[in-house]
Amino acid sequence: MAGHFRTQAPAASLPGQAFGRYPQFSGIMKPSRFEGEVQNLEVDGTIPHSIDGTFYRVMPDPQMVPFIEGDPWFNGDGNISAFRIHNGRCHFKQRYVRTEKFVRERQAQRALLGRYRNKYTDLVEFHVRSTANTNIFYFNGRLLACKEDSPAYAMDPVTLETIGLEDFCGQMPSLTFTAHPKLDPVTGELHCFGYEARGDGTPDVCYWTVSPDGQVKNVSWLVAPAVAMIHDFAVTDHWILFPLNCLTCDVERLKAGGEHWQWDPELPFYLGVMPRYGGNNSNVKWFQGPTAFPGHTANAHETADGNIVFDLAMAKDNIFVWWPDRDGNAPDPKSGACRTEMSRYTIDPRSKDLELPTPAVLGPDDCEFPRIDDRVSSKPHTTIFYLAMDPALDTNYQAIGHLVAGFAPYNAIGQLDVVTGGLAKYFPGRTHFVQEPVFIPRSKDASEGDGYVMAMVNNLSTMTSELHIVDTNDFTKAQAIIYLPMNLRIGLHGNWVDSQDLGLSKD
Ligand code: V55
Ligand code: FE
């Protein structure tokens, strides 16, 4: 075993197995840790029979109490929730991804993995450190449970059993796989990338596609101008877009037991623009703008005159305040520095001038987690659904503020028409916070954005979770509310999969 691993934990760092004494594991952030199923969940309103499929979502949900002080939300074990909707009924199933971390910690009956993305702080040597906690994505008959530091874990979409690491028929070109792959709605191929693709602290970025039958194609390698977080990306007909965050990694800091990420206020915001076919270091362009925090991408497309239109959530300062700058400073989330806006860059990929234009702001909200109708991914889109933190809404902080403990949840879902600027909002209730929405088309040939939006909601007055369904034609009220008999922790990403795509009968 390599010498850099501690062979025993200092006794003082061994806490009891009680999450409740840590603020980040209390209130709304209390781990769920449940595995099992509940059939025929309670429903208010009616679930349209045309909605037939499964909503998958993942939450970081620590199995064991970490031995790292202040262990961030992003380091919990991936626990997958599946809501199967059929004949107006909803059946719930939840199961942890059997990652190497999960299996070995269960065996040892204690935490073994150390600091977020720092192998030098682990108690044992792991082959793969994935927590599989960021996205759950259906492709080619399998669910991919993703963490951007590792390959994905493949799971059975019906039983939620873990199959093993997904290496795409042994052709996986990169050590890492993004949590935000994009399914091409025209070709059916999966657009993939990894950053730190040759290991911790490497500036290498790898892009590839996987054909619908599982073959790796179109492998491109780039060296990025910084070892920076690339959490999400975007695809157009001819271009691949890589927004680099101003959070950077340094191997010496890792070896000293420090954090993977540090905010670098001197780094520009780099946006890599690479040809979709045959990208390399000589044809990628690294556009630059002022220091920024690029968040999740909504979509990108090309205009008739060959420009790229790219919509994503952007903040001016470091949203991940638990990874401060080199002086230990991070913005106060209440100061407005963390305000995140849906922003639109219009870029000429042929330009010799690599300075990014100032983006247009698409709406009035402090918002994140944009989603579109995935049938227009990489093509022009009209509607963006997103999570908003709207202080004008009537959230009862007096009643529930103590359960939020420093976490900044979202209190509404926005439905933004980016062509007209029209905006409707769904407010789930005064004691409710909402998680990433997904869009469900009304039918196979429904027009873009016509259908339903589904999202997990935490009701803090009952401390139970709910699944809300909203009709896009009547966005301010719920079509149906599905009730779980327990609270699920705040999650990250999820996706809707139609029963037909899962090979399940609709009868
Ligand atoms: C994100 C989430 C992560 C992570 C890196 O939302 C970036 C962004 C849940 O883990 O490891
Ligand atoms: Fe994400």
Automatic annotation (TrEMBL):
InterPro entries: Carotenoid_Oase. GO terms for biological process: carotene catabolic process. Its cofactor is Fe(2+). It comes from the Eukaryota. Binds 1 Fe(2+) ion per subunit. GO terms for molecular function: carotenoid dioxygenase activity; metal ion binding. Keywords: Iron, Metal-binding, Oxidoreductase. Pfam families: RPE65 (PF03055). Fe cation binds at H180, H231, H296, H493. Belongs to the carotenoid oxygenase family. This is Carotenoid oxygenase. It comes from Microdochium trichocladiopsis.
